[in-house]
């Protein structure tokens, strides 16, 4: 009998990370999660699915190493890593402080670097597996309103491609998903909370993506999680170095006028 796969998901207390942890657990994986803050509302469902949770700040290499090593100590293997933790930054670069730059780049890029650094040897030792980086449609094309965030996600897509090439001989598949905007995530909810007119901003998010506009809604965390589940599965055995846009066509170009 084959042992369940071991999967690690960062930023898993809400949004895409939470949806991913639940999907992987329901698919039969033994799931371990890390987040900067554990939420009481997840305790019951995570307990029922035997999802192990711990506090983890992805900007800390020690925290990432501890999360990964703790999982492997329990199961003896590592098969899947989802580098999901991320933060937004909506500011012109002339107003961005060094502290804000560091927080954005350290969370969105260095956190994934730490995860890959410590996960790759363990995945390799088990004969291969999958790493999925959660980027953004800002990783596919620059955005004027959040240039530093775009830089972090463009670099994350670059990291994905580079490491996919490096570690194909190790049978490690490394891909990215590029969502946005996604409803019910900490990032989008924070933007809506700061908006003078919440409903107008919500509609602007929808209108920015032609498919989202056609369906009159944003993407959902679970729609992104389904793509991550696919990339983690054997169905994606020959898929590596890709960046899947889950953005309702926002990154395609100038949308048609309707």
Largest sheet: 7 strands, parallel
Q: Any idea what the shape is?
A: globular
- The CATH homologous superfamily of the largest domain corresponds to NAD(P)-binding Rossmann-like Domain
Write down how many β-strands occur, each being a DSSP E stretch of 2 or more residues. Answer: 7
Mean pLDDT: 95
Q: Please work out how many helical segments DSSP would assign.
A: 9
How does this structure look, described?
There is one protein chain. With 258 residues, the chain is α/β, with parallel strands linked by helices. The chain folds into two domains: 6-180 and 221-246, Rossmann fold; 183-218, no CATH class. The chain has nine helices and seven strands; from the N terminus they run βαβαβαβαβαβααααβ. It has helices at residues 15-26, 43-48, 61-75, 98-125, 147-167, 186-194, 198-207, 210-215, 221-232, and strands spanning 6-10, 30-35, 52-55, 80-83, 129-134, 172-179, 243-246. A seven-stranded parallel β-sheet has the order 3-2-1-4-5-6-7, with helices on both faces. The protein is globular and about 50 Å long. The mean pLDDT is 95.
Question: How are the secondary structure elements laid out?
Answer:
Elements: E1 6-10, H1 15-26, E2 30-35, H2 43-48, E3 52-55, H3 61-75, E4 80-83, H4 98-125, E5 129-134, H5 147-167, E6 172-179, H6 186-194, H7 198-207, H8 210-215, H9 221-232, E7 243-246
Helix pairs in contact: 1-9, 3-4, 4-5, 6-7
Short description:
The chain is of the alpha/beta class and 258 residues long.
């Amino acid at each position: 009998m084959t042992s369940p796969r071991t999967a690690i998901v960062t930023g898993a207390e809400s949004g895409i990370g939470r949806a991913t942890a639940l999907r992987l657990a329901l698919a039969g994986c033994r799931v371990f999660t890390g987040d900067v803050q554990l939420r009481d509302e997840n305790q019951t469902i995570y307990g029922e699915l035997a999802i192990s949770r711990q506090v983890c700040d992805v900007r800390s290499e020690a925290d990432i190493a501890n999360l990964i090593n703790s999982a492997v100590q329990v199961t003896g293997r590592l098969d899947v890593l989802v580098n999901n933790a991320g933060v937004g930054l909506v500011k012109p670069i002339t107003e961005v402080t060094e502290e804000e730059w560091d927080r954005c780049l350290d969370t969105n890029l260095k956190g994934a670097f730490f995860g890959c650094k410590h996960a790759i040897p363990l995945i390799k030792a088990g004969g291969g597996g999958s790493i999925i980086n959660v980027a953004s449609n800002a990783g596919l094309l620059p955005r004027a309103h959040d240039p530093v965030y775009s830089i972090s996600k463009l670099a994350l897509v670059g990291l994905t491609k580079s490491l996919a090439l490096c570690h194909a001989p190790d049978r490690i598949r490394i891909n990215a998903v590029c969502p946005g905007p996604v409803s019910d995530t900490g990032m989008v909810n924070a933007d809506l909370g700061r908006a003078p007119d919440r409903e107008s901003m919500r509609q602007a998010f929808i209108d920015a993506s032609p498919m989202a506009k056609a369906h009159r809604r944003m993407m959902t965390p679970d729609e992104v999680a389904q793509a991550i589940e696919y990339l983690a599965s054997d169905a994606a055995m020959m898929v590596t170095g890709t960046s899947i846009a889950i953005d309702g066509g926002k990154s395609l170009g100038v949308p048609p006028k309707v």
